[in-house]
Description:
With 286 residues, chain E is an alpha/beta fold.
Amino acid sequence: xxxEVRIAGFGGQGVIMAGVIIGKAASLFDNKxxxxxxxxxxxxxxxxxxxxxxxDDDEIDYPKVTSPDILVAMSHEALIKYMGDLKDEGVLxxxxxxxxxxxxxxxxxEHKIKLYRAPATKTATEDxxxxxxxxxxxIGAIVKVTxxxxxxxxxxxILDSVPKGTEDKNIQAFEAGYALL
Amino acid sequence: xxxEVRIAGFGGQGVIMAGVIIGKAASLFDNKxxxxxxxxxxxxxxxxxxxxxxxDDDEIDYPKVTSPDILVAMSHEALIKYMGDLKDEGVLxxxxxxxxxxxxxxxxxEHKIKLYRAPATKTATEDxxxxxxxxxxxIGAIVKVTxxxxxxxxxxxILDSVPKGTEDKNIQAFEAGYALL
Amino acid sequence: xxxxxxxLCKGCDICIATCPxxxxxKSDKVNTKNVYLPFPExxxxxxxxxxxxxxxxxxxxxxxKEVE
Amino acid sequence: xxxxxxxLCKGCDICIATCPxxxxxKSDKVNTKNVYLPFPExxxxxxxxxxxxxxxxxxxxxxxKEVE
Amino acid sequence: MxxxxxxxxxxxxxxxxxxxxxxxxxNGTVMSTFFKGLEGTDIDFExxxxxxxxxxxxxxxxxxxxxxxxxxxxxALSFATGLKVGNPDLDVVVFTGDxxxxxxxxxxxxxxxxxxxxxxxxxxxxxIYGMTGGQISPTSPKGSFGTTAPYGSRDMPFNLAExxxxxxxxYVARWTTTHPLQLxxxxxxxxxxxxxxxxxxVSQCPTYFGRKNKMKTPLQMFEWxxxxxxxxxxxxxxxxxxxxxxxxxxxxxxxxxxxxxxxIKKLAEENSDKPLAIKSAFEELD
Amino acid sequence: MxxxxxxxxxxxxxxxxxxxxxxxxxNGTVMSTFFKGLEGTDIDFExxxxxxxxxxxxxxxxxxxxxxxxxxxxxALSFATGLKVGNPDLDVVVFTGDxxxxxxxxxxxxxxxxxxxxxxxxxxxxxIYGMTGGQISPTSPKGSFGTTAPYGSRDMPFNLAExxxxxxxxYVARWTTTHPLQLxxxxxxxxxxxxxxxxxxVSQCPTYFGRKNKMKTPLQMFEWxxxxxxxxxxxxxxxxxxxxxxxxxxxxxxxxxxxxxxxIKKLAEENSDKPLAIKSAFEELD
Amino acid sequence: MVEERFVQGxxxxxxxxxxxxxxxxxxxxxxxxxxxxxxMSILLPKYGGSFVQMEDEIASAGAxxxxxxxxxxAMTATSGPGISxxxxxxxxxxxxxTPIVIINVQRGSPSTGQPxxxxxxxxxxVRWGSHGDYEPIALAPSSxxxxxxxxxxxxxxxxxxRVPVTVLADEVVGHMREKLIIPxxxxxxxxxxxxxxxxxxxxxxAPCDGTTPMPAFGDxxxxxxxxLTHDERGYPDTNDPDTHTKLxxxxxxxxxxxxxxxxSVKKENCDDADIVIVSCGSPYRSVGAAMKKAREEGIKVGxxxxxxxxxxxxxxxxEIAKTASDIIVPEMNLGQIVHEVERAAHGEANVHxxxxxxxxxxxxxxxxxxxxxxNG
Amino acid sequence: MVEERFVQGxxxxxxxxxxxxxxxxxxxxxxxxxxxxxxMSILLPKYGGSFVQMEDEIASAGAxxxxxxxxxxAMTATSGPGISxxxxxxxxxxxxxTPIVIINVQRGSPSTGQPxxxxxxxxxxVRWGSHGDYEPIALAPSSxxxxxxxxxxxxxxxxxxRVPVTVLADEVVGHMREKLIIPxxxxxxxxxxxxxxxxxxxxxxAPCDGTTPMPAFGDxxxxxxxxLTHDERGYPDTNDPDTHTKLxxxxxxxxxxxxxxxxSVKKENCDDADIVIVSCGSPYRSVGAAMKKAREEGIKVGxxxxxxxxxxxxxxxxEIAKTASDIIVPEMNLGQIVHEVERAAHGEANVHxxxxxxxxxxxxxxxxxxxxxxNG
Lengths: 181, 181, 68, 68, 286, 286, 376, 376
Ligand SMILES: Cc1ncc(C[n+]2csc(CCOP(=O)(O)OP(=O)(O)O)c2C)c(N)n1
Ligand SMILES: Cc1ncc(C[n+]2csc(CCOP(=O)(O)OP(=O)(O)O)c2C)c(N)n1
Ligand code: SF4
Ligand code: SF4
Ligand code: SF4
Ligand code: SF4
Ligand code: SF4
Ligand code: SF4
Ligand SMILES: [Mg+2]
Ligand SMILES: [Mg+2]
């Protein structure tokens, strides 16, 4: 089955890294197929940042996301910008501290969106003690809620992707995220 | 009627200028059609120099000379190089002082070439007193022998082409050439 | 009077570094782009030299000058 | 012995100008390209300095040197 | 009543602000210093035409409320040459970067300098290719890092101000974004010079140069530039070792001489008994 | 027994002689001085690779009996850079003209100088485009005539030796065809220099420069060059007016410093624990 | 007053440019086009114009675009190697809708090839040489007179449609001398300047197949010109697919939808022809004699000469393909325009190439022999 | 050992080059190809190779040709504007028969256009961009794996035929990340060095469709390489039509006469198909879904994917045209490969373009809708 994931936030939050890790987890460690793409261009600099992952058991022809099954939003601006084509009854995971929830209530209701709140930034800062691992915390939350990739695969992909010496902190972040929801 | 003329010599003899003058005479002052072309490229530098003129009462389609009716040779090297495709019974005008005649006797006889000797260089140096007008002397000889252009047209074209102040010398050269044959 | 255009400011802090009179401090006011804006905490020290205006990369600063 | 290769010489006269001993003169010998060749008229004055050999643009000059 | 906005904003296309430059990028500062420099001359802003190549720095003309030609990478000076010769009455200003001017565009730069064509070139040298994401440039300091110099750059960088002087420019100066007043003054002089003027501005690209070279914030870069700048007069008394890694600021050439469009104008006037033809495309013939 | 031919002929492809250069053209002299300079070094002629662009001067490599790459107009130094970096063991020599090196090729010239890549560049500056029939070049003297300067050139010419020095070359000299001994010596030094060497040779193009500028014979040109040459040391004591129209000859830079292929070699050795890879196209993999 | 001169094609080209009111030339010498630059360097100062010898062809292309925006009619001339170098800036000319004229006097190629010999091997390069989608206009003269006329026409088309226009000459036409008649009533298209309506003028706005008026820099319109994808105001908008599609489609359509007005062909004896010779540029000079000889023998041969290879006269060729059984395409290359002929013929006629390289024009008999071969 | 990685297409390309034993890279950054240069700058020193960042793309093309003659496998990578600048030196690569590999990661164009968006608008430029007649080889990948595989294949073809080979990728393929499998038994073509027979070796001699072995500079063959028309020895001979004809015809024939060996297409469901979708590069990714959907509705749709747009697989298309009634060509441009398809179809099938620009890949439904429209 084809699953389309979109993660959005602003530059510096590690959004793209999160997409790569999920893609890698699916493709190298879960033995599925995955394609990861991301936004380029002026708007990717400083402003909004976005990555998308398509995961499928079969081969993936069309590599782009058209209407995501899962949307993860780490900033309000990004949420508003990219929320539009989320599938009806799709999953929306937000970092509640970065988002003005009242602005999306109508949308969520109308489209029967399954909304989850994962305070990734806060968890990273307060529990893990490292703000920049908010993206890994978010991966934990995504894996818990959606099961797009297995816990093992996610962990292996994280270990494969983060700088040497930071492995423990990152696994801790993943687990903190996993525990959030 | 289409007439094809080729004039050949070595660089510095004004061979190309001679071709231009004949073309101009025909086209501007005899009201015929004319196309002048010339050799370019490494071999045109220092070494052999060549110009060709096609003259016709009708419009000229194909602009190049394939087998000249008239060949004018001002150097031996050029003569040997370009003699080959002269038409049978064609006209060959040579500057005898620049050419080793015995080397062409067979060719002339075999192809029934009409051979004329116009000592243009000598005439220019000795009679006109200006070696560089040998080309104009040669035009005189060509006009006399072949009538490809009229005397009037030739003179007008010469006046139109030579540097101011040298008109008289050049007309004198033309007439000296005209008187040669 | 010093005005910072919060729509233009990108929070680079160059005004803070440039002002010879240390007029600026960083506020905790955030704009829509998540930028923490500077504010003229010690405006009274301002000599209206215009350096901050000139240095601000985003043409976000206005320093009211005396009208001659 | 000085030899000028008449197939290579283009008659530029640079050897004539270059030789510090004025060894060369222009001959009236013409080659197939209508070139008037130089010749070592005053070869006796030649010091075998090799300047003409080096300067000739057409590698047309040979100056026999002593064999050490 | 005074408007309550930056005095430099009136020169900008408001509908396009904020510009795309990253927080703390020096490009924005250079824009303001240019307008300040311009105000010091009696040039009419309406008569200014801006030309640029490709790069972050080359985006500046797109924000100015005047005629502007944003061209191909490295070729700004070729286009500017046509524009200026085509109509010598225009005040043509070129904005360019170290990559645009000195890498792909190096030849046009030295030739424009040689011809001493009356252009004012403002070259924002951030020692890196900002627009494409942080590759080293011909001015990247030895040992600095870029995405194409992952092991540190080992090439010797150009001394742009010296190079352009040697090529024949009549006015050459180098300042930095930490010298906004001196910089505006130099731009003013460049605008007033009747010949080729080259103003090199050493500037910060916090996003790429900074990030790759352990200066994560704009301020760190700003301070680094400030600390390493040495005035030319002082530098002349120092030896090579002391100058290693320093940014020498000041005037490198100020030597007015015959200018290209003047030469062309005179040639036309001498040979045609008419003033130089301009705007020939609009001329109805009869 | 000694062979009875010019001692420089053995380096040439005999079947291609005489070469296409016009009578009295300086190109031929430069060839011989090069071979003489080479004989002064311990470089093996078999190991020399020549590279050139397009122009009369760029035809020289085609006559030498060694590997030679006759490339596109102005780009010789780019090809030479690939050749030399690809195999730093080769002795790569570049023959070029004022048009090839300094007009269309100016950017590659200053960048090769900046990188201080170990090439020896011999630039035959005849102040004109010979190959295309006598148009002015970026080194044509002010006031000289060419087919594209029918009213006399008004642009300022480049001072090539100075420009290349400012760009970073480690060895730079200028001589003329009337200084064949000094020229060979400079070429020898250039070959021996482990870095970018630039030897500018002011030379005669009697066919075009001469003809257009009232020097019809090769000898007139030769004498003109000789008379106008001034040694650098003497020139330094003269003022600008006195130097107008003069050819300053001598050494302009001799300042050895880090060389490009050395840097690349070291980088590879440090990171791969192997010597630099060469001739990878022939390598069978397993 | 009508003037008659006996000049080289390259000189006729320069005279044509002057007649079209071109007062700016930037160029870099290259055989066999150099005489155009040389003539312009002589002529322009006499007409108050500007000549600049640039450092290379890239700079030359840049300079004429800059000059065009200063309000000048501007031209450059070069040959294959120079055209190759200009490709990036030519693309810039298309996307910014800048009227310029480029002369390509074709020579033997690829690469440095045969500098002094003739060829037509850049016919497709002018169509596809720059990256991206665009629709060029090109004219191919076959005589000295046409080189003059087509240069003027090139300026007119450039102004009419705000596009770069190329004259695809070749060494034969560039170097031969013939009579040139300079008429006294030459039709010249003048650039359309926008009305000065404050803030209302959109420099890159036009109906889907249209051209907007174009001011000169300094006229007070404060316009921004960029090679990035831009909106009607000229502002970059590089990530919006619609902006790009709208822009590029319009740029192409303004040529394609006026194909009829731009295309020019010359038909002779086509009505009853079984065999039609489709030629372009110099080879046309060999068609007449071949056709005559064949007709004399009762073979029904016609000729279609393409003046404007681009936009390609698709319809005219399609029509011919319907009536004729065979089409012969003589080209001084290994087959370029013949590709378009084949495509346009849609399988309805047999298309035969006479590709000839090496620098020499086809002789009439080479075409005649092909006719005979086809005729069986 | 087989290795698996999850990487961007651009990184896969760099890895492919390393696997093919490329040990020289010269380049100049440009979006969206820059990651290739960046990866090469990281990888090459680790493999003992050389990376040089040049001053521009012209220099980059020159440098890889120089490096190739030094005996290296050499590559550069760029995008449209850079390719336009390289045209002259690419032509030099053809006439001198120099094996090099050029990567073009296509972006929105013409001109600077849309630097970060995708396009396939340089498909014809690679065929016709340089002046003169030549026959290029190009490969168009549609996945990260193919970008790796085709880069290796490009090096192999370059060595096999002594020609410049281009990989025509696009932003989609360059930037997306997918699984890459690096096999342990990659087939690599090694350059053929001539036997050392004194004075007997002719570096540019070969049968009419053939390739000569190629020494490295310094190997002792003292060869002369020139971009002028040259004889078998490599000596310039620019005025002899025969020398030129022989040379250029051989250069073209060595590709054309091996078309069968070089061309590669992938056919699916073509045998019974009424409608065949002919695609090349990224758009192939949208074909599968469309075809499946249509087949499910009983519409007989097939797919022909072109791996090697050049030399164009004429015969394969002609064959399809004979059996299918309609051919659909989805391209990220306004119609390029479709021209060749039309030509090769020879009027025997209706050819429909789905031209799409603006930077976004066709969605499967856009192809499906066209199928439905045709199916009526
Ligand atoms: C022909 C061409 N090559 C490469 C590029 C890609 N490119 C765009 S900007 C740039 C570098 C700009 O550097 P710089 O001029 O220093 O500007 P900055 O962004 O640093 O201000 C490059 C290589 C291009 N647009 N065109
Ligand atoms: C791209 C390109 N532009 C122009 C030319 C034409 N061209 C050939 S040689 C030359 C000038 C050569 O001048 P220079 O390097 O000084 O050599 P010289 O002939 O004077 O020795 C020119 C412009 C060319 N071959 N290629
Ligand atoms: S300098 Fe300008 S942009 Fe930067 S923080 Fe101050 S006001 Fe904001
Ligand atoms: S005007 Fe001067 S003193 Fe006042 S805040 Fe700005 S920099 Fe400081
Ligand atoms: S220098 Fe050489 S070519 Fe010139 S005249 Fe003397 S021998 Fe002949
Ligand atoms: S070797 Fe010296 S002295 Fe003898 S002829 Fe030659 S230049 Fe004169
Ligand atoms: S990338 Fe660098 S140069 Fe470009 S806008 Fe950002 S900070 Fe400025
Ligand atoms: S044209 Fe000039 S440079 Fe060329 S060979 Fe002749 S004299 Fe030498
Ligand atoms: Mg920069
Ligand atoms: Mg020269």
